[in-house]
Each structure stands twice: as C-alpha cells, then as structure tokens.
Specification:
Elements (H helix, E strand, L loop, with lengths): L5 E2 L13 H9 L7 E7 L5 E5 L12 H11 L7 E6 L2 E3 L2 E3 L2 E4 L8 H13 L4 E2 L3 E4 L35 E7 L6 E5 L6 E10 L6 H4 E7 L5 E10 L5 E5 L4 H15 L3 E2 L3 E3 L7 E7 L3 H10 L3 H10 L10 H14 L23 H12 L4 H7 L1 E2 L19 E8 L2 E9 L5 E9 L6 H13 L11
Parallel strand pairs: 1-3, 6-8, 7-9, 8-16, 9-17, 12-14
Antiparallel strand pairs: 2-3, 2-22, 4-7, 4-18, 5-6, 10-11, 10-15, 13-14, 19-20, 20-21, 21-22
Helix pairs in contact: 1-11, 2-6, 2-7, 3-5, 6-10
Length: 475
C-alpha cells in the first residue's frame, strides 16, 4: 500500500519532504516560492495519496475549475441532456404572412451556431412562413444574469473569451473572419462566418510576400459603432501569401442586436420578408409553439468545453445547473447547488469560491485537495467515460495537442489546463507505464510564474514512469 505523505509546510533545512524530483528541483532553486505551489498525486480510485503539498491551500485554478462545472453537469443533468430553443408566434397567420410576433424562447443553448439558426430559418420557410409583419421577440427568462461588462476582466472587449452568458447565446457572440489570398492571388479576402445585417466590412489589407507571422501582429482592427444598429469593422495592414487561410474571432454587438442582425440576414437570404424590430420581453401565455430546436447532447457539449476550454459555454452550463421551470438559472443558485452536490459526495470544499464556473475570474478559488476529490469521484462515477474523454489528450487533441510530442506520456494523459497571468494549473489523469491510473493536480499562483509548462511536462513524465520516489536515508 502506498504511503500517505502530507506536506503542508515550505521546504526548510529541518524538513526534507519527499516530493517529485521535478518539483523538488524547482523549489530548491528558488524558481518559485514554496507557498505558490500546490500539488496532489494519488492513485485513481484509491484512498491512498502519494503526494499532498499545500493541498488545502485556496488557489485560483483558472480554467481548471471547469472540471467541477462539467462533472456536475454530467451528473446532475445527465449526459443526454439537451437545451431547447422554442419558436412560437402570436397574432394571426393568413396564408404565408404572420400578422403578429415571432418569438425565440432562449433555452441557454451553448452551441446555437449560425448553421443551426439557418437550419431553423429554413424549417420555418419550408412550413410556408414567408412574411413577418410583426417583431422578433427574444424571451430570455431562462437565465437570471446581471448586465455583463466584457471589459471587466482585462479590458479586451472584442476578445471572444470575454463573452458573457445569455439565454439566447448565438455563435458564442463572435464573428469568425476568415483571411485568405484571393483565387487570383492578387488581394486578401476577408469573409465573416455569420451574416449580420448591421455589419459593414472595410478591407484595407494588402497581400504581400514574405514570412507569415502572427495575424494580429500584421493586421490591425478598428471597430466603429456607426449608429445604434450599424457597426463598421475595418482591417488594415499586410497579409503574406504563405499564410494561406487564417481566422480571427471578434466579439461584436450585444447579444440581442447580434441575434436580431443574424436572423434578419438569414431570413432575407432564405427569401423571406421581415419588416419589424427586435424586442426583449417574456412571451405571452397565449403564444403558440410552432417548432423546437434541440442542442447536441451534454456529453458532446462537455467535450467542447473541456478540450477547447470554451469559457462562455462553461458559463452557460453553470447557469443551466439551477434553471428549472419557473426558476431562472443564476450564479447564486448554481453555486449553492454545486456546494450541496459536493457535500453529498463527502467533499467539504470550505475554500471553494465560484463566480462563473469557467475560470475567467480573479476571485474563484479551490484547493488541490478538493480538485483531487472531484477527479476521484468522477473516476468512480457512471459518467466517468464521458467525463474523462472530454479532457484534452496530451499530444493528441484540444488545448494540449502540441504538448509533449515525442515524449512517452503523449497520448497517455487526459487533462484540463488553466492559464491566467498569475495562474498556471493542470488537473486530470495520467496512465503510467505499468497500467496504473493516477490523479494529478498542480496549481501554481504567482505574479511571475516563469516557464511552468516545463515543470508540468516534467511532472507528467515522472508520473507516467510510475511516480518513482527518491530514496531518503533514515532520520
């Protein structure tokens, strides 16, 4: 049976704790202060812990907090859970003309993409609806969320990772602009992946020879709100022919204008006519439901959240945990629900602080011990296959596809990573060379963390080799 080694104090001349050599070397060199690191290594499904260093210390986990959100979702909602976006109407349908309002009931779908909205529009057109003489009403009562400021976290209002949750989230509220040399190789084409009736694109980018480089280093972006509805996006700079196709995701407009603009463009493209405006209000009880659009199941959504660390999808799932008929999902209710769920699993988590369940937060906190407990619980859960397969496979896919290539641990570890300016974290499972599965949680919080990736990679290799501990002389 493995020895339990509990190390909650810094290194000193008086204490020589058994630590994994990669971490011991970093601490011995003073690369990181001893209190900036927390580590747990334990065998999955076993009561024994090999290493627990600063294990109870509250730390900012960054995106690693998503393991709690996604595991809770799989257990509390079920892997087959679907989000539903209902479409209803009021007024009177005369022939192919609706003399009333068309209503979109937001159901919190994290993956309501433009392609799926276009399919919904075609469905309505195929059923004989042509002219909309009323308004497009957006019912957002599924979530109870405060007004969201995308600049609050880091001031980057156009970055897709700063998008807030919304009951009618469309296309992650982001436009993906695809850059590519024109077919005649004389100019740069810039094409958005989603049509927006309010969007004007100004292309001043010149096609050049030479090295490709980073897109954002060569091209500048200027967004101007021309009016209450219209937005102009101007690109300037140079784009090298050898760059081929590249994408730039930009968060534009607020949620309601984004949905309204996309719907207007798609309805027109499908041959329909709409002369109304966009309103946000609860649907009347007399509205008649005419169709329902279901999301992919939760097991698929969780893969997107964890493998690609999608923040707004995690926010949507977190709020959905507490959404039920007659009660809107909220941060407060979801936080309370997660705490109760953990308590029932015997995971006290007194240090846990949740803000959005996604990790894009300055205040979220959790300990390495709590995360290890969650991972251990998931390992023994009926949703274990769905949960583990949602984590990025080192050297193979997701956010870790370029890590540890050529190393023996590649393809042998399912992990979630998290990165903020002062936080470098990972948590997940490593299969060692002897066929044993290990839980690994490494949290680093420091203003100047340095190249923590090297420490992470070395630690993963050490665990994959079977977590050999150095022999220490007695005393």
């Amino acid at each position: 049976m493995l020895a339990v080694i509990l190390l909650l104090c810094p290194l000193s001349a008086m204490a020589q704790p058994q630590l994994p050599p990669p971490l011991a070397e970093w601490l011995a060199k003073g690369t990181l202060p001893a209190d900036s690191v927390a580590l747990v290594v334990k065998e999955a499904g076993s009561a024994d812990t090999l290493v627990a260093y600063n294990a109870a210390k509250p730390m900012n986990p960054a995106s690693v907090i998503k393991v709690i959100t996604t595991y809770a979702g799989l257990e509390l909602l079920g892997p087959a859970y679907n989000w539903k976006t209902e479409v209803s109407m009021t007024g009177e349908l005369r022939g192919s003309t609706l003399h009333g309002d068309l209503i979109l009931h937001g159901g919190g779908d994290p993956k309501l993409t433009v392609d799926r909205l276009a399919a919904l529009v075609r469905r309505l057109r195929d059923r004989g609806l042509y002219s909309l003489q009323g308004d497009l009403v957006l019912d957002k009562g599924f979530f109870d969320v405060a007004p969201f400021d995308p600049a609050r976290f880091d001031g980057e209002v156009l970055r897709a990772y700063n998008v807030g949750a919304d009951a009618l989230l469309l296309n992650f509220k982001a436009v993906r602009f695809q850059f590519a040399p024109s077919l005649n190789n004389r100019a740069v084409t810039i094409v958005p992946d989603i049509p927006l009736s309010q969007l004007e694109i100004v292309n001043r980018v010149r096609l050049t020879d030479g090295n490709c480089g980073e897109l954002r280093d060569r091209v500048t972006l200027d967004v101007q709100n021309v009016s209450a509805t219209q937005v102009r996006v101007a690109f300037s700079g140079t784009y090298a022919r050898e760059c081929g196709e590249q994408n730039w995701n930009v968060s534009l407009l607020d949620h309601s204008r984004f949905v309204g603009g996309a719907f207007a463009a798609l309805w027109k493209a499908a041959g329909g006519v709409w002369v109304g405006a966009v309103r946000i209000e609860a649907a009347p009880a007399t509205a008649k439901v005419i169709t329902v659009l279901e999301s992919p199941n939760l097991a698929e959504i969780v893969r997107d959240i964890n493998k690609y660390s999608n923040n707004v999808m995690a926010r949507q799932l977190f709020l959905t945990l507490s959404a039920e008929p007659g009660k809107a999902g909220s941060v407060e209710r979801s936080t309370s629900l997660v705490r109760d769920w953990l308590q029932k699993k015997g995971i006290a988590a007194p240090e846990l602080v949740l803000e959005n369940g996604a990790g894009l937060s300055r205040i979220e906190r959790v300990s390495a011990a709590t995360l290890a407990g969650v991972l251990d619980s998931a390992w023994k859960s009926s949703v274990m296959p769905e949960f583990v397969s949602s984590l990025a496979l080192v050297g193979v896919d997701g956010t870790l596809r370029k890590r540890a290539r050529g190393e023996s641990v590649a393809g042998q570890a399912h992990l979630k990573t998290g990165t903020l300016n002062d936080s470098r974290c990972l948590a997940g499972y490593v299969l060692d060379a002897n066929g044993k599965n290990w839980i690994v949680v490494l949290l680093v919080n420091h203003a100047n963390p340095g190249n923590v990736q090297a420490l992470q990679d070395a630690l993963l290799q050490w665990v994959h080799r079977g977590a050999p501990m150095p022999h220490l002389p007695p005393g």
